[in-house]
Amino acid sequence: MRELAGHLGEPGAVAVCVDLLGGADPSSYLGEVVYLSGLRVGPGERDAFWFRAWGARGLLHVWTDDAVPAVLAGLGDPDPGVRQAAGRALDRLGERLDLG
């Protein structure tokens, strides 16, 4: 993930994660998904929830406050794995803010 941030800058990497978490068409981000998942995947090779989860998981490593609305929305995702990943991203934000 840090490598992706090195290419796009942290705000750019966060934007990719936010878009994927929000359900953006993953075919627009197949190159970036390699950095998030470690996998080369083509369109239709994975269920859509994986891309949303990878977006949330990416936010464990890069962050700007622009991600807050997407992470909060991710807590209501229909897939439990996405909800869990969004919850972990929110927990990481709490650690960054030293909220305990």
From TrEMBL:
Residue stretches in coiled coil: none
InterPro entries: ARM-like (IPR011989), ARM-type_fold (IPR016024), HEAT (IPR000357), HEAT_type_2 (IPR021133)
Pfam families linked: HEAT
Domain of life: Bacteria
Keywords for this protein: Repeat
Protein name: HEAT repeat-containing protein
Record organism: Nocardioides lianchengensis
